[in-house]
Amino acid sequence: MKPKILLTGAAGxxxxxxxxxxxxxxxxxxxxxxxxKETHGFPFTQADLSDFDTVRSLCQGMDTVVHLxxxxxxxxxxxxxxxxxxxxxxxxxxxxxxxxxxxVIFASSINAVWxxxxxxxxxxDMPIFPMNLYGATKCWGExxxxxxxxxxxxxxxxxxxxxxxxxDSAMISEEHPYIDIILTWDDCARLINxxxxxxxxxxxxxxxxxxxxxxxRLDISTSRRDLGYxxxxxxxxxxxxxxx
Length: 244
Fold this sequence. Notes:
Blueprint lengths: L3 E5 L4 H10 L4 E6 L11 E3 L5 H8 L4 E4 L10 H22 L3 E7 L23 H20 L2 E7 L1 E3 L16 E3 H13 L6 E6 L11 H7 L7 H9 L1
Parallel strand pairs: 1-2, 1-4, 2-3, 4-5, 5-6, 6-9, 7-8
């Protein structure tokens, strides 16, 4: 029997790409505020994750929750972040606990440590350093994961995504300031899947997600070691090939 995965943010670019790649590997249940372009035959519920009763119902019978649903804007206001990133994230962890889910995978962000200088490679054991409210809400989600793991024995894996981009993105350029934080859609899907399949003994962790770039502003050594993450793309090599 295939593991059952509740995928929040299923209509977003990351959620829809992950679903398309792994649609044959898992039994998905999808949710988002808006309809996805393609469900691949899986059940979809249009929902506001700030509604606890709805989230609790969706978590019933799930093995793993992949929580991608959020306001993803670095400029998001508190009025949006409170329901979409703070309350919704609490609801997901609490509902997963009550439902007896095996694991919650929380989509965090490089914005949780965006305050470090560009020439500093950030490791997961370094203090959080958000520079915007969006990043602060991601720190909140990471703290929730630690709490639910330690207090309620709910396996919680937090993935700090870099700049998630398709392979043809204009950001994949040697001149672009964000090239060292590129996480291609393909590698992002690999990272999420590695968190889904990580051993049950992994009760908590914060892991960085960037591609196999020549220079990585986020260190991914623990992602390799603990999750078996094996990125395949190098944004610098892709940029160079594009200019040739």
